[in-house]
Amino acid sequence: MLSLPLLRHTDVPPRVTENFILSGYRFPNYSLRQCLVSAFHPTNETGNFWTHFLPIFVFAFHFLEVFTWEGAPEPSNPFFYPFWNYFLGVLYLLLASSLAHLLNSMSLIIREICFFVDYGTISAYTVGSSLAYYYYIHPQAGIPEIGFGGLNSTQRKSLNANDEAWPSASSPTQFQLFFESLYIPSSCLVAIICIITCCNTRQCWRRYRYAVRTLVFLLPFFVSSTPVFYRLSASSPSSSSLHLFSTMAAFFYRHCFWLVVSALFNISKIPERFSPGNFDIWGHSHQWFHCCTFLSILDELQMIKVEMQALLLNPTLVLSPAMPPRLPGPTLWSTYGVMLLLQGCIACIIAGFGWQAYQIYAPEQKKLKVH
Question: Which sites bind Zn(2+) (predicted)?
Answer without folding.
Answer: 101, 286, 290
